[in-house]
Amino acid sequence: MTRLRTAIDDLGDATGEETGALLLAAARHAVTYRTAPRARQRAEATYGQSVAAFDDALPEDGETAEQVLDQLVRRAVPGLHAATGPRFFGWVIGNSHPVGVAADWLTAAWGQNTANHVAAPAAAAAETVAARWLLEVLRLPAESAVGFVTGATMASFVGLAAARGEVLRRAGWDVEAQGLFGAPPVRVLIGDEAHASVYSALHYLGFGKASLLRVASNAQGVMCPDAFAERLARDVPPGAPLIVVTQAGHVHTGATDAHERIVPLARARGGWVHVDGAFGLWARACPAHAPLAHGVEGADSWATDGHKWLQTPFDCGYVIVRDAGAHRRAMTIAASYLPPVSEHERDPSHYVPELSRRARGFATWALLRHFGSKGIAAMVARHCAQARLLAAGLAAEPGITVLNEVVLNQVAVRFGADGDGATGDALTRAAIAALQEDGTCFAGGAKWRGRWIMRLSVIGFSTTDDDIRLSAQAIIAAWRRVASTAAAS
Ligand SMILES: Cc1ncc(COP(=O)(O)O)c(C=O)c1O
Question: What's the CATH number where 208 sits?
């Protein structure tokens, strides 16, 4: 900070001083936010309270930059969850690592439009190199193309757009030219517990939910390979265009589909396999956990996130497509005022739905460089061990059941007596509310297989084993309060 302040003080011209003072003030607010201890991990203000805090009439006269910044901080901070903290286990959210945040500040300050390599040479170059590093760290085919998107939802959208184009092209239909009406039917096989975002990506592409061939899941929420083989044999005519959607990392259990069985079956039918690996694909970056995602490398496209296990700030996801030509056919935007691209150059917009966009390659490059492949492997291994530690601590308490086999970083927990339907739901929801009220750590809930669960995702770089122990104690204490109230009523 002192060095930064000196650098700002040294700025010569008046505009520079003003800009410098503003950016330094923003940095101060950010540092205060990131370093101040907080009593509770959940936001203190609800959505409604936050709307009330922001909700003024549109000002006619503008305010000074300093006033605006102060107002923003004052109104926003109460409504911020501690998603960058060590005991935040809600949804699946990385910690927005300071190295990524710093790179992202520069990204915003540099203001590059990352559409193409002429408009933004450095931004395009950072993506080119970060793309290569991603393929290396995730152990995916080196010839693949990579698009830097907002997250895994858009990554699946792009991967499945490439899939749709290619399987139809093989059937003699050019979907990019002819559209979907009148096209040969594409069969899409998907696990019945695939992530909701993949179903959304499919319906954006014209594959409505009712048209999908769903495959039954096992107790961990991933496809039963036998059920997959049966559905393929029964419902997909030989030669029909085929897309198979698998997952690496079920959102509640962390389990991964049996790719070593599913991929060869799909390939034997000429199918395209797309993997939703929003966080689970990162198991491949860790030698100890890579076997979980064995066979994934045989697929055709992969969706994953930077803002989960790589800890980039929001938003950042990656779509990886083995057939770079199919990827480009699905996404390229061409116009006479946009520069041509030679085989030695790469235009970021040829791999994503947007033309103008943020330079996500800078933060990705910075974090891959900061962690190194060994650092990522160690972080994934640590989170998986911490998830097991948390699960073991909770399972030892009467009335708490860990429902999943903790193979990765996700823990699904149920409260109350086993088989206790509606009562167990009520107790589980009450335990989640009690934990959030206490605030030592944060966990959310979900309805899984007809029953409410507490979901815990260990994925923040800053979580220590002590944080896990403290969190287990807090969850147990919340549960005891709920159980004793229930017993008394
Ligand atoms: C398994 C899985 N797939 C897809 C997604 C969607 O990712 P995003 O929110 O980055 O679009 C998530 C988000 O948690 C997820 O866990």
Answer: 3.40.640.10
